[in-house]
From TrEMBL, chain A:
Domain PCI: 249-419
Pfam families, A to Z: PCI, RPN7
Chief location: cytoplasm
UniProt KW Endoplasmic reticulum keyword: no
Subcellular location: Cytoplasm; Nucleus
Species per Swiss-Prot/TrEMBL record: Powellomyces hirtus
The organism's place on the tree of life at top rank: Eukaryota
Annotated InterPro entries: PCI_dom, Rpn7/CSN1, Rpn7_N, WH_DNA-bd_sf
Family: Belongs to the CSN1 family.
UniProt-recorded name of the protein: PCI domain-containing protein
GO cellular component: COP9 signalosome; cytoplasm
Start and end residues of each stretch annotated as Disordered: 1-41
From TrEMBL, chain B:
Alphabetized Pfam families for the sequence: COP9_hel_rpt, PCI
Name of the featured protein: COP9 signalosome complex subunit 3
Keywords: Cytoplasm, Nucleus, Signalosome
Native source species: Powellomyces hirtus
Primary residence: cytoplasm
Listed PROSITE patterns: PCI
Family annotation (SMART domains): PINT (SM00088)
Domain PCI, first and last residues per copy: 125-293
A Gene Ontology biological process term: ubiquitin-dependent protein catabolic process
Amino acid sequence: MDVEFMQELGPGFNQASRRPPNEGPGESPEESNENKKKKTARVIVTDPSLDLESYIANYTGHTKVDRLLLIADRCPPLSIDAYKLALAELRTTLDFNRYAAVHSKLNTALVNAGQSPTPLDNNWVEKAKREYKDKTDRLERELKDYKVNLIKESIRMGHNDLGDHYYNGGDLSLALKSFMRTKDYCTFPKHVLDMNLNVAQVSLELGNFPHVTTYIIKAENALETSEDKIVTPGKLKCMGGLVNLESGKFKRAAKDFLEVSFALGSHFSKVISPNDIAIYGGLCALATFDRAELKSKVFDSADFRQFLELEPQIRELLQGFYHSKYSLCLNLLSKMKNDLYLDLWLHGHVDEIYRKIRKKALIQYFHPFLSVDLNKMAQAFGTPVSDLESELATLITGKEINARLDSHSKILRVRAADLRSTIFDKSLVMGTDYQTQVRHVLLRMKLVRADLIVKEQGHDRPDSRRYMTRGEAEVIGDPMAIDA
Amino acid sequence: MSVLFRHVMTFMELFDPSHVNVVPAKMGAFGEAVFNLARKAGSPNLAVRPLQIACVRWSAPDGANLTACHPLLCKASLLAKTPRAALIVIDRDISEINPSAFGIKYQHFLLYHYYGGMIYTGLRLYDRACQFFKLCITAPGPSVSAIQIEAYRKFILVSLLAHGVVPPLPKYTSPSVLRASKQQCKPYLEFAQAYESLSNARIETEFKNGEQAFQSHGNRGIALQCMQALTRRNVQQLTETYLTLSLEDIAKSVGLVEVAETERLILRMIEEGHVFAKISARDGGMVSFQDPPQRYTDVETTRRLHGEITQAMLLENQMLKMDRSIAVSKDFVAKVASGERGSAPPSAGLDDEMFDTAAWRE
């Protein structure tokens, strides 16, 4: 279906080829939870227009590595560079397991490219291992001391430090546990907020989305007393948006991203960059908002306009759509598609979002007309007439367009609505439905009252055998055979 | 034999309902005996007439009561292949349940509605059949009867035939029935899912998968009918989507091989009034679909609406009466009183936070 879709969108779309998901190299455990939540087929991008260095400079921390690895995995031309950058980033942490895993992948990629593999820096790995263990021991010892002394604030700090340390070392589930343990030792609203924020962020990385939502809500409740009105709410909105995006609730995702204040800037670069907010928010809005909403929520939002300045392509796209320049839009979309396939959060949803946008474009195009010449419409969308026709047919079947196709003269016509008959139909059906429902319910109550209920009666179970043996049911089983 | 049945007839025509109500079990047994006798004699139609009269007279004057003879009549008329004979009884809705006067158990209720549904199915009155099956399926109770499962199977197929979709069961369906029906009716549910998608290939495979089950449950006939109705449903769908379409395209999209066959089908559908269209011989057969002529413009409509409204009001009154009778009933008052005296009900649901952390600590 997706292949068809790519063809529909015209040339420039067949650059991305599909491969069955099991063809890729073995995944390291860090990545496996990434792959579990994405059920879509892997898309291999061969000619990206992305500038890796400048793109990745927007991020820090784990998401930087995650993003690099995704690009390396999906985009062979960039894979060696991406692995190298990821290694450089990992060297600043203590996550030696992941370092080794990425390194072996780099070597595979190098061998595939016909270059000689690089040796693993064992010294660093050993050092990191030692350092990690020492620090763990030290922090745990400290925490024990704090617990003996029963100073709430110190215990909280101890747990927090340990959590940070685990997080830094890539041990997310332990980090999550540590952060959650701080809960009992929070004394100020600020602490509660920190705790919720930390838990939400780690859960997000772990892919435990329901958990993220719970903690976002909690954090938002704790927010009321906080003085920070920009960064933390922005972070929460971003995470909420990501969760909604991930679970395919594009409209809610769009709303979340649109509420992020531009002042968030790169404060949240360990999860999301301002450019991402523009892209995610813009695309989700385009896929789900109607024209009025686009205007009021997107173009009239001072904050989001600033975001859009960062991604002129998205701005053009939104405006093109708003001004009904659909072929421009579709061209832009097709240009962006490859890069979006390389995005950590978006890559699984690109096709779905594109489908929605295209559907909306078709509906919106037809909206002001009584009848439309399919040839002209096909031109505006850059698709062959026959494809357009079948696409429209599905829209009509799905009751998205109230129109009918004149296949002979290739015209799409609005269906003359016979409101009177419809209302008669509806009300008659409703009336009879109501009556039967009420009758059934009344009868049911009477059954219950008379204690005439289906229950097993000791000796003759299974109860129905006595009344309806299989044999009897078969003799008269097929009512179609009876009619004279 | 005929003498015996003459006597039976005489009794059925003359018995006094009020007397029978005192010994309903005897009357039920008698009905069963008549039925069995006729069946053993190889001519179940012998039992139809006496049972018919028994049902009508016993549940007189308004026919609102279910009697022990009702399911027997339905079964006899099914076996005798004279489904119309039962209509006089089953066309009246049951609205009273009185086990002590009419000797009924829950099996009677289930069987009556199951057989009734089958009769209506046979007579192509699918809506009514669905209602009967539904009544059987949604009968209250903690356990499940095999009759209910059979009814559910037929309900699925008949709904598909009538509407193309299977409506969800009402909320008050007992949970055990829901569970059992999910387990026992897998091929049916899968077939239904495929059917709702309207994709020919999927439906074919699901039909093949389920054919064995359909056959052994005696439902293959209805399933086959569903398959046949599919083409028509697809054509009807096309009328919603297209104004004109060539016969060739129609054949392609409804999955028929021959154009001539498609033409015949459409002609038949036009004649039956299912489709409003014209076929022009130009361009190798172009079908132009038209809007159905305006309906609801006659006196008949007003009359029908009026009737429906009166009916609805009657039911409303019945509801109110029932509501009132519950409100003043001893049990209800006692329950409300105890509720007021007792402490506030325990808070609903677990504290999710407790739940969360507990789960994480494990």
